[in-house]
């Protein structure tokens, strides 16, 4: 083999090695670029999901609330013969099914203060008490304005007291903290029906 042939073969070998080396580097760089792109995309997807989750958690309030209320009312029906004023306290658990509908469970105690017995100075009728247990709804037909409806049982606390059917429509204003409502509450059964027109002011705690 002549010197010229060896030089040509050597040059071809060297050039081929360089070409292969360059192709190998190019392939590696392409693969690295793809890995970097995939890593960046995965990181961006993770950050986006995390931000969306935090935003969703922030913008969606807890649907459960617990409220404590004070209420006063004017007796109606047979009870107005023995009392002029009712004062009570109630606790209410509320679940917001959506932004327009709340489901409630309410219980507490109502006290009907006895009024003066006609013809007997200084003598009053005894106080009457009742424990209500009610389930209901609050339907918001305008921002923070709702119509309420409740049904349940009322347990009279005096000797010989009975269990009454409770039906109660209401109209009120409420936000995430305060609830102010006016209602009529009827107690019926045993041929002794009475009720009250009441105002309830409550403060709610979120869970």
Secondary-structure topology with pairs:
Blueprint: H1 3-59, E1 64-77, E2 83-98, E3 101-114, E4 128-142, E5 145-156, E6 163-174, E7 178-188, E8 194-206
Antiparallel strand pairs: 1-2, 1-8, 2-3, 3-4, 4-5, 5-6, 6-7, 7-8
Please, could you describe this protein's structure?
The structure is a single chain. With 207 residues, the protein is of the alpha+beta class. It has 2 domains: 1-60; 64-206, Beta Barrel (Porin), CATH 2.40.160. The protein is 28% helix and 52% strand. The protein contains 1 helix and 8 strands. It has an 8-stranded antiparallel barrel. β4 and β5 (145-156) form a beta hairpin. The protein is elongated. The N and C termini lie far apart (93 Å). The model is unreliable at 2-25 and 49-59 (pLDDT under 50).
Put the structure in a nutshell.
It contains 1 helix and 8 strands. The protein has 207 residues and is of the alpha+beta class.
